[in-house]
Each structure stands twice: as C-alpha cells, then as structure tokens.
Amino acid sequence: MAYIVKNVHTVSDELLEELKLVSVSTASHTLVEMGYRNAYMQGIMPLAFPEGQQSAVGRAVTLRFVPLREDLVKQQYDTLPESPHREALESIMKNDVLVIDTGSHMETGVVGDIFTRRLRYLGGQAIIVDGCVRDLQRIKQVDFPVLARGVHGGAIPRSLMSVGVNEPIRCGGVTVIPGDIILADRDGCVAIPPQCVEEIVKIARAHDELEERWIKMKLDEGASLHTHYPPNAEARLEFEQWKKENGYA
Amino acid sequence: MAYIVKNVHTVSDELLEELKLVSVSTASHTLVEMGYRNAYMQGIMPLAFPEGQQSAVGRAVTLRFVPLREDLVKQQYDTLPESPHREALESIMKNDVLVIDTGSHMETGVVGDIFTRRLRYLGGQAIIVDGCVRDLQRIKQVDFPVLARGVHGGAIPRSLMSVGVNEPIRCGGVTVIPGDIILADRDGCVAIPPQCVEEIVKIARAHDELEERWIKMKLDEGASLHTHYPPNAEARLEFEQWKKENGYA
Amino acid sequence: MAYIVKNVHTVSDELLEELKLVSVSTASHTLVEMGYRNAYMQGIMPLAFPEGQQSAVGRAVTLRFVPLREDLVKQQYDTLPESPHREALESIMKNDVLVIDTGSHMETGVVGDIFTRRLRYLGGQAIIVDGCVRDLQRIKQVDFPVLARGVHGGAIPRSLMSVGVNEPIRCGGVTVIPGDIILADRDGCVAIPPQCVEEIVKIARAHDELEERWIKMKLDEGASLHTHYPPNAEARLEFEQWKKENGYA
Amino acid sequence: MAYIVKNVHTVSDELLEELKLVSVSTASHTLVEMGYRNAYMQGIMPLAFPEGQQSAVGRAVTLRFVPLREDLVKQQYDTLPESPHREALESIMKNDVLVIDTGSHMETGVVGDIFTRRLRYLGGQAIIVDGCVRDLQRIKQVDFPVLARGVHGGAIPRSLMSVGVNEPIRCGGVTVIPGDIILADRDGCVAIPPQCVEEIVKIARAHDELEERWIKMKLDEGASLHTHYPPNAEARLEFEQWKKENGYA
Amino acid sequence: MAYIVKNVHTVSDELLEELKLVSVSTASHTLVEMGYRNAYMQGIMPLAFPEGQQSAVGRAVTLRFVPLREDLVKQQYDTLPESPHREALESIMKNDVLVIDTGSHMETGVVGDIFTRRLRYLGGQAIIVDGCVRDLQRIKQVDFPVLARGVHGGAIPRSLMSVGVNEPIRCGGVTVIPGDIILADRDGCVAIPPQCVEEIVKIARAHDELEERWIKMKLDEGASLHTHYPPNAEARLEFEQWKKENGYA
Amino acid sequence: MAYIVKNVHTVSDELLEELKLVSVSTASHTLVEMGYRNAYMQGIMPLAFPEGQQSAVGRAVTLRFVPLREDLVKQQYDTLPESPHREALESIMKNDVLVIDTGSHMETGVVGDIFTRRLRYLGGQAIIVDGCVRDLQRIKQVDFPVLARGVHGGAIPRSLMSVGVNEPIRCGGVTVIPGDIILADRDGCVAIPPQCVEEIVKIARAHDELEERWIKMKLDEGASLHTHYPPNAEARLEFEQWKKENGYA
C-alpha cells in the first residue's frame, strides 16, 4: 500500500546553489530551532569527498534494501529490468542525491565504484548510505561525495535485496522523504524539508557571513562569551555599527 | 514505487492449523536446511503469551514506522482516516498476524492494550514488533500473543510515524513479505515462505512425533549421541522396528 | 561547583498516594504531551517487585558513581563516614526513592539485599539503578521494588566509587533532579517534575477510569478504532451519555 | 600448538558439595578480594533452572565454536566421530559442567534438549553458553540448569562449527580453564580457580551463616549502616557476644 | 584437545605474488560466489598502511588471547620462553601474516611498534588484530601494514594473556585457520582458503583487467547499467570485439 | 552535596612541560604498572590535532551535561550568567584542559569552533569530549587539539543541558577529577593523578630515550624478542655498556 506522507513543496536549482554555502552544522542547528529535531543523520560520515569541494546538495531519491530472501531474490534476479536498485540508479536526474536504507546492515556493501560512476554521469550530486560501501579505494578515484556508515568487501547478493524506490525511508535515524533536500559536507549530512530551505539559507547567511565573522574577530581580541556569544544588548549595537562600517546590509 | 518481490503462494486455514504443532525451533532449523538462512527473528521474544497456548500461527500483515517528521506527522494526523497504522489494524482478518517494523527503535512503544484488544476481536493471531510495546501489564490481561524487543512507556507520537502497510519489511533481521506465514511460540518467532509450510509440517511431524520421541527414550536408557543422534545405520533399523511395533506409519 | 538547575516545587504525601493509581505508561505519554520528551527511563526494568503491589511512588534522592580511582577510593574508604553511598542510604526518609547513576556500568553490582533492607526500614519506596544489582535472589526475599539494568555478582569496590549525593544525574537516558517524583510499576519507571504531578493525576483519572473503561467495552462490542479511538464527535456524545448514566462526573 | 596456562589443583567431590551452599554473589565478591577481578560471567543468565534447586556446581569441560567455514564444516561432518562438540558431550563425567564459547554469537543456537538430556544422563551438573540455546521450552522440561546469553531457533550448522575441547576459553568476559570450578545459581555464574574453593567456602560460611544473619536481624531492629555494616568495634563485640550466646564457634 | 578442522592445501610464493593484484573487494565477492559467505573481516580496518603499497598478502599464523587470570598470567610470566605471543612472533617466516584473536577486546592494546618491527624483520607481511593496537604513531613509523579494530594505550598485561598459537580463531566474524591466505588492502582484509587462491586470481584478472576497464570506459560514454552491467548479449559481443582489437586474450 | 574524593597534589608548569615528551601509550602502560588500571580514555580520539604538535598537556577542568529537561533548561537559559558550560569555559586558565562528560551522548554536539577559539585564547591546551563535537571543519581551522567520540551537527539545546563544573566525572570509562593532569596525543588521551606525574616522566625518559632507542637498533640488527625485549641479563649488560659509550647517564 502506498505511503501517506509526502512532500508537497519543491526547490529550484538556484536555491540549491545557494544552500551550498551553508554548513551542515548550521543547517542542522537551524532546523532544530525551526522545530525539526531529527535532521542530522547520526553516524553517516563522508568516506569519499572531492578535495576542494565544500559541500554537496540535491533532491533525495530513496532506495530501500531488506535482508535477502532466497526464493525472492532469485525471482528478482530472473527479471532483472525490475530490480529496484537498478531502477533507482537509472532514474537519477541532474541534482539528485541517492539515499539508501539498508537497516544499518554492516555485513555487505551496496555501492561500489561502478554505481558511483554511473550516478555522477547522470548528474547526481552524492550517495548517502545507512550501511556499507565496497571498493572504497576505487570509489575515491571517481572523485564524488559518498557518505556511509562503513566499508565491507561483500556485494549486494551476499545478504540483501532491494525492495522499494522513492518510499519514505530511515537513514542515520532520520526519515528521508523523496524530494527532501540533502546537504552533505565533511561533518556529515542533513535531510531538509523542501519548504525550509529558503529560511535556512536566509538565517545561515546572517549567521555565517556576519555574526560569526564578527564574533570570531572579537574573540581574537579577547571578548568573553558572556558578553559576545550570543551578543548582549551593548555588543549587538557594536555589531550593527560594525556592519554599517563594513558595507553589510 | 511499488515493491517488486512478492509471494505467489497461499496457505489454507487447515494447513495453518497443522503448523501449530510444529515448534519454532524445528521450523527454523528445517528452513535453514531448505536453503532459507534468515527465518528466525533474532531478539523478538514473547512478552505476553496466553498460558496453555502452545503456539500462534497466521498470515503476515506488515506495517512500517519511520522516525516522525514534524511537518508530515501533522499532515498525517490532520487526515486521520489515512493513518497507515490504523489502516493496518482495521484491515486485520481471521488468521492474520500483524508484523511491525520500527527500525528496532527502542525509544517509544507502538502497541498497547487497546490495539491488542482490537486485533484479537478481528480474528488476528499475534502481534510481532521489532521495537517496543507499552502498557505491557494491560496487554497481558488481554491474553493474546505479543512478541517484541522491549518495553517503553511512550506512545507512537513521541518519536515515530507510520508510512506503509503490506510492504516487505525487516523484523528481527528477517525480511517479512505480506502473506508470509508467521509461527510464534515461547522460543520466539519465524517467518515462513508460504510454499514451504507443507514441507515443514511433513518434516516436523516425522522429526517431532517419531525420531525425537524415540531418541529421548533411548537417551534415557543411556544411548550415546555417537550412535543415536543422528541414528547410525544400526540404530535406524532399530528405530524402524520400533515404529512398526508402535503403530507409526 | 554546585549545579544550577533545581526543583522549586514539592509534592504532598497525599498527592503521592493518588499518583499510585496512575500507570507508568499513562504518565509517560501524558508527560510527552505536556512537553517533557524524556521521562521514561529506557531499559531500567523491575527485577524485584512485590506480588500484589501495583506501583511504587516517591521523591528522588540521587546518588552518582564513577569508575574507581585507586588512590581516591582508598582515601574514601579510610574516611568511611563520608562515603557518599552510605550517606545517601542513611539520608533516606519516608516516601523517598533512591535513584543511582553508575554510567550504565554493567561490570559490578551496586545494590544488594542489605542496602535494600535498610532502605525499606527507613521508609524508602523503591531503588532505581542505571546499572546492576547483586544477590538478586536475596533482594527478592526483602519484598521491595528494585529496578535496574541487570545483575552482576561483584560488589562496589570491584570497579566503582560513589562521588555525589543529590546532584542532577542521568538514569536510563533521563535526567533526575533531587525531589523529582518517581513512579515505578511492572512497565518500568518515569521521573516526573513535581509541578506536573497534579495535572498527571487529573488527566490519568479521566483517561484511565472513564475513557479506557468505556472504549474497551465498546471494542469488545466490535467498535472500530476509526470511530472510537480516539472517539469521533458522535462517539464522544455517546460517551458523555454513558458517563451520565453510570454516575461519573 | 597446545596452550600454556593450566590448572594444577583439583577439588574433591566433598568440597564441591560444600560449595553449593555459597551464593554466586558471595563467591564473586570474595574472589575480587582475593585478587581475581574477572570471575563473574557478565550477561550469562539462567534460562532454565530446576525449581527448588539452589545452585549447581561442577568441574569445567570447555568447548569452543568458530564461525563455520563451508569447506571445513563439510570435512568435519564427513568424519563425524571427530566432531569436537560431540566429543565434548560424550566425555562428560559425574560433576562436570560444560562451558561453551561461541564468541557471543547470537545468530544460532548450540544446545537443545537432546544435548541437555544426554549431559544430565552422564552426570553433568550444568551447561553454560556464551551464546544462544534453542528449543528452550523443551530444555525446561529436562529440568536441568542451563545458562546462556539468549535464544535462537537455528541449530549449529546454520553458522558455527566446533574446533576445540578443553582449551582455555572466554565465556561472559571471563577466562575458563578446564578444571575450573563453576558455581551457578539464579544470579548467574562464576568460574573459580580450583585452589581458591576451600578459602571461599570458609569465608562464605563466616559471611553467610553468621554475619549476614546477625546484621539482618540488627537492620530489622533499626541499626544503621554506619555502625553495623561493616560492624564497627563496638558492634563487633556485640556480634561476638551474640555468637557465643547462640552456639556459633 | 587439538582441533579437528585443518587446511590441507598450500600456496606457492609465486601465486601469493599474483594475488597482490586482486582487490579485497573483488576477492571477497568472488568468495561469496564460490560458496564462502564469511571471508571479509568486518570492522578490521587499516590503521597503518605504507604509502604506495597497494596490498599485503601472506599465510596466516594465528594467535589467541583470553582475559587474564591473575594466577595463570603469573605462572605464564614466570616461564617466559613459553609465552604464546612471543612464540608466535618469533615463529614468523617470510610471507607470513600474524592474525590475532582477542575476542574483540577493546580495553587494551596487544601490538605496538616493537612487535611490528620484529615481524617486519622476520619477513612477515602484515598484522591483523581483532582488538586494539597501541602506540599507533610509532607503528606508523615502521611503515608496515597493521589492521585492527581500534587503539588503546594499555599493554597486554593490563587485561589479557595469550593461550594458543596456530589454532583456528575468530577475527572480524571470520574463522581463520593457520595457513589461510590473508589479503589486505585499504578496504580491509579477507581470509582465503588456500585451495581457492588460484581460482580467485583467475576470476579477478578477467574481472579487473578487462571487464571493469571496458565497462568504465562505456559508462564514461553514457552506457546504462541495464545494458552494460552486467553486459547483456549485445554488449558482450561488443566487449569480445573490443578485447580482440586491444590485444587481450 | 559536594563530592568527597579530591586531588591534594598539584603539578608545576615545568613538570607539565616535561610530560609533553611522554607518549600517551607509555604513560598509560606505566600507570597500569603503578596500580592505576583506568587511565586511558577508551574511544576518545583526536578529531583535530595541529600538525607538527606532538602532544597536549594540562590540568583538568571538568564539565558535566545531562539530558535536557524542558522546564529546567528554560530556567537555566533565562539566567544565562549561571549557565555551567559558559562558566566552565570562561574559567579556563593557562595550561588547563577542558574535559566534558555528556554520558557518551551521540545525539548532539557540545563544542564548536567558537568555544574552541575562546578556550585557546584563554590559554587552554585541549578539549576532551566523551560525546560529540559539531562543525569539525571549522574547529580544524582553529588549529587546536580536540578529542571526542564523534561528530553531530546539532548544538547543545537539541538534547543536553550542563549541570556541574569541576565535579568528578566519567570520560571514556575513566574518572577525571579536577586537577588531574591530562596528556593527549594522536593515540588518544590519559588522565594522570597529579602525584604520579613526576614518576611517569622519570620512567618514560628511561624507557623512551634509552631502552626503546637501543632495542630498536638491536631489532634492526636481528635481535630476538626472547633475548632483548625485555632484555635478559646478558643483553642488559650490553645495554649498560652501550649507554656508557654513548654518553647516557
């Protein structure tokens, strides 16, 4: 039976571009303040991330694996065009991110360098796996962001089979709905409800570009957390003055 | 997107009745020998089981929860008739077993005595939860088989929301497909592919009613495992003789 | 340095008495609805609970252990009157509950039958341990509610030392502040901020004595969750009518 | 290559009989005080224990399993007389205890009711498993002490193979050497170096029969832990007096 | 009692050399297809691996630790020449790999830079530890492949003692038999039954040198997984043609 | 109630300077030999460590978090000057190390780059967290030693509140008392009782500067562990001779 919950908002490519300037840490904290407690995916870390690339952003395409059942995996492999994980991969479009739920299964790898290479070709932006990847050395040569829980030498048929594409899934303790916006950097990744992206970009810009810059400057001059983090009334006046003098809106 | 793998066999109520005489342990081991390694659900134990009832058997109806997302659970609760977990419960028919995947979530309970009572009324045979139940004391008063990983005082809205009914799910490290046959007793539970039930009943009958009875008798007379478990050629002759003398086919 | 956060409310013995009629499950769920997500202590289960006693209620006295440091435990044992765990035990007054934080340490027991016996004598109502007890068989003979994570044969000096009494502590993932009200039954236990007790008793009475009784009656007559749990407008009218006819306020 | 460490002491059946009066908790704590930190097996609990039997005592026979290797298990099963786990079982003599190391493997059962029945016939006193048993319901009917970490429906060939008998093994985080004395009761079990048994029996007798009896009496009269547990100089005089008056040595 | 299962095949140094060109990932997957499910050691990762070295290969020498028992470790240390871990280390020959089973013990380190240095001198190829190493910084200076589960500052006498050399052991959930062939690279390591090495080298060569090279080229040209991975009939013809044109056998 | 156990020794800045030459591994092992089993913090690894810096040393200032309680965190945030974690940070003096106990909470970060920057300004030497940091990328830019269990995008208010400064705490399974000396390097960190520092420096100097240097030289010449590690009588003479010839005391 089809799931009930779904995203009704979408996000433009331009807004995705702006989101790239926000850190996972800022987005994660901002979402908590907006009432979304579960956005940061715990334990899903960047195992491969291109040098010089600051972050990866895209729309979630989801894929779900369950432990293989011997009769059904045979049924699945006999009718290859229908294999959900191949469907998911080939369905990837520009600015998609593939998010994979294996049930935190640590006993086989579900993504290797071939899949990664294909995803990059199709315009995908990252792969996120609540589980293991395989052949990490060759994945690294593809120069593409891959986040996962660990590494295992085995491949899918060792113990898993795919059963669903674009369903709501669990990843790192977080629900990911198709169309959620994924933001990943070296601190991990976060699933953002599409309707929140604009607000996050706005808050993060204020936070990252101005406050943080000014506060760090003040800290280097010896300012105390008590007065400057967060700024008290007096410090805030000082900050507004500084903004004016330095050409910030 | 709908899942691919599915059951194509069904099992009659009469065969379900016969399966009740088989132990989870025998069914689990027989399935391994038939090539199904993952049938026993690890860590899902009977928290409530009616005294005097030996086992519970039924057809799997599946239900899947994911961590709640604040905007979507609101969307779900505003349109209550569509809530998947209520749909699942009300869809229960005679000889069904409700199997619930929460991602082994230990931080809230998903089944209490009200749901248990309704399921019993509708002819359900058991509830299996990869996660927690709540209000176990009142569940016990319903006198109905409930197997789960643990207990938590919280209710669904604390941290989960339901997203799918009758999809393939994970439960205790085992894939459960709608229509799988669930067998539960005081040793836990097992998901049986429908096409295997007849064979299991046949093997188990031979195993449980004859071999085991005879071997235990021989053990009590001092027989060694080396000769009698499994029986060597000589012991097997002796066993065939005993069967004839005691009126077994 | 002394902690900052503290309880400013207290609860009368009469209110404690009324709280005994509330189940842990109802209190836990009610607290979530009141905005307290972390009240139920995950994994702390009743290992000993007197037959026929429905629940235990009291004011939290807290005790904290850390891994023993060889020089300091010696310093502590040389000046026995100051040993925090003995201070804590001897400070117990009527309607207190001793709550112990060991850091979920599973490698030694911190409470045995002697401590349990003394606590009962002093009017304590229960012992809650995020860690292990020892000599559970003899604890059971004391006939007193003891909830813990597990059992270990070792005693405190094997690997722990006590360092603080009546500080805020962690127990089962929940913060317990001295003076919090502890409610324990066969489903586990919950820490209730004192100012919430009155409201919980009121809500629980409405919930447990009326709604639940009536809904169960309706379920036994075949009512659907869709219409009766929670009751829709029509069912609610029916319920109000039933209340009037059966003498409930 | 044979192991190096070994026991050089043995214990008489009479001493084993006396050890039955000591609790696991007292033995475990006494061993810590004698300098043996790791004697209590953490997490290995009695899953079956005959009603009315207080404890089980015997000499350790050890058995070690490793994950099955497909070629070698075949080699092993083709030459059945050599299968180590059957060798171990058939080697059991009066007052032996079988202790099994599976590497805390929770994915199959290694002992069922047939093995338990044979062990009882041969005069064994208990089975201790760092791993799972299967068919617990039938094991319970054998009325024999079996301690383990959990239950699994699968049998040995699902994922394990036996490789060694009477080697030093790990069980519950404790090293067990063949010939160690195992003491088990409802609080779990402890491995005792043979040379320590006599001392433990002596200390435990003093502790259990006298001190504990007297202190409990005093606690029921309201004595404080500060003066009576452990007894201070004055209380000790009182205790000596009481001993004389009540006919203890 | 000596173990039963054993390797009967051996592998030449030349074949070991060829195995160095195979990746752990390819070997692991190939073994699953050959019927060996448990070859990849889960969670045992390269903590030190010489820059520029692609992989390490050698014959397993095994070593097993158990938790220290105070009387026996003393007995062992009084007779140092017999200490199994020193025996194991000094027995290392050209193209051996030392594989150590500590029971996944994370509370002390068993290998430091001195042992690593000696092993390298003797011609060893790698050290694999299911447990912790210590002094990782100095190990890195030895420039030698060391794979383990983690790091701990403590040394062996803190909590372990060695008991057996060249027994079957568990490492990363995998059975390792003396004489098994170990292959390690940056993705972890795999234990290969000796009789399988030749086949793996052959399969891997076909897989790694030809298919993978060609498929990656095709993927970079936009080929779909549906047609090219694995290649369908048409793609396979194209591949055979390409092989001929590019001088592959 | 204030804790009982406390440090009575202090350590001079000069001695701290000398301690910087000792490795965590050597200090940890030496402490075990001096009778302190629990000094190395298991699982707390350097996530940021300035290139070229060998180790960090300082006096422990402790800080303890518990799971947030909604009413009390509000009470705390309404009176910001009293917030314990800000008090702790602003109290840092030259050669202090901030050690944070979150109960191994992995569901939010407690230290980011702002706190790290302030601590460095105040003369702090390192931050040690039994829990998570956030914004690790920006922490790395501060070029300051930060050791923790992991990374999480969330900030303190997501799920924690601070309750105590300079109490005894748990960190990585180790008790840390205010004033303990913390030594951290790329192998992790260790808490040293102040009275032990002088002895450790002395032992480590002998160990690191002479023995280790000489033994490594001998190992590179092919010396066996049997004769040279530890050195037997003959090797020790050789070593004393070498010391004299090379100008060591």
From TrEMBL, chains A, B, C, D, E, F:
Its cofactor is Mg(2+); a divalent metal cation. Substrate binds at R134. Keywords: Magnesium, Metal-binding. The keyword Metal-binding applies. It comes from the Bacteria. CDD domains: RraA_family (cd16841). Mg(2+) binds at D135. InterPro entries: RraA/RraA-like, RraA/RraA-like_sf. Its EC number is 4.1.1.112, 4.1.3.17. GO terms for molecular function: 4-hydroxy-4-methyl-2-oxoglutarate aldolase activity; metal ion binding; oxaloacetate decarboxylase activity. It catalyses: oxaloacetate + H(+) = pyruvate + CO2; 4-hydroxy-4-methyl-2-oxoglutarate = 2 pyruvate. NCBIfam families: PRK08245.1. Catalyzes the aldol cleavage of 4-hydroxy-4-methyl-2-oxoglutarate (HMG) into 2 molecules of pyruvate. Also contains a secondary oxaloacetate (OAA) decarboxylase activity due to the common pyruvate enolate transition state formed following C-C bond cleavage in the retro-aldol and decarboxylation reactions. Belongs to the class II aldolase/RraA-like family. Homotrimer. This is Putative 4-hydroxy-4-methyl-2-oxoglutarate aldolase.
